[in-house]
User: What shape does this take?
Amino acid sequence: MNEFNILNKQNKARTGILSLKHGVVETPAFAPVATRATVKTMTNEDLLEMGSQILMCNTYHLFLKPTSDLIERYEGLRGFMNWKKPIMTDSGGFQAFSLGLGAELGASKFEYMTKEQEDSKHVKNKIAKVTEEGVHFQSVYNGDKHFFTPEKSIQIQKQLGADMIFAFDECSPPSADYEYTKQSMERTHRWLKKCVSEHKKLESDQLLFGIIQGGKYRDLREQSAKFVNEHCDAIGIGGSFGKREMNEVLDWIYPFINENGSEDKPRHLLGIGTIEDIFEGVKRGIDLFDCVGPQMIARTGYIYVGPDSEETKTDKNEEKTIGNKENKFRYRVSNARYDNDNRPLDPNCNCKMCKMYSRAYLHHLFDVNEYSAKRIATYHNLYFILNLMKEIRASINENTFEELYNTWMG
Ligand SMILES: [Zn+2]
Assistant: This one.
């Protein structure tokens, strides 16, 4: 159980088989996000037929509702959701920090508090507070007070019963200075040790990922990579960063997660999942991704579309909608220009929605705000990403990943 075997490598990119308690994941893989034990607008059947190998569920939300105690009675998420394939849960730390902060300050989830905001009475009384022991926070649902510690996070994740779990960490904001980022990283390392001992104490057979932090600072990232590699059999890479920073961070940490026979530890890039990021991540040796992005943009009418291909090239008389790095491989079907466009959402996609519905029809559904609009768009976008992962795996196995990369990334 919990074995990772590398199949093929092309430079740093690699394919592998991750064998877990409840099934096998072919990597590189993308995990759709089932925050509250469901991928919004999708059913299990949808997810299985589009080839989802694994889902990412959210510890913070499920702990609060319907509670991890209740889910445990159903033999964990697997029984509760009736999802028979592997599941991973995050540690809950990110939401404990960010939802309190974001909700109270009306800030985006990555926003960093100013000193004045931190000191204001309103904030002091209400939002998440970090101490050496853990995070105090209030439920986004009813304001109840809770306290997450590293141990508690591991206990809750045991109740939720996922195959892969994550150590409790603080995702320091990108605007944090060196000193704060360093302190936060060192605390995250101390928390990691606590997570590892709690995991042992519970005799858990879940695969525990430590999380590399350290923000945009090279020496911190290197230290963190070394630390996590020493303490865990699986490597998570956390943080929030701009595109160039992400690539840089992955380049910095690579030697440290690849030394002394540790190259066969699975590597998960947390919360990352744009098409560009997936290509850049795979190129730098990442095995697993999760992101709400494809689902979230679908619900606002953005449709993924691939790069130019033979089929779209023959489509001479019609205006092309071609995906590229500049348009982030997507167009907005709710735009007026698609109101009479009878082409499928993506002419090169084999998903059932593309076979069945035109852009004009989906445009109309968004226009009149029908539930089915979100469902059709979500299905296509997730299928599109999962199919891309399949193509990426095939290309690495056939030693043509670089060609595929160039076709998409130019
Ligand atoms: Zn499609």
Notes: The first strand starts at residue 3 and ends at 10.
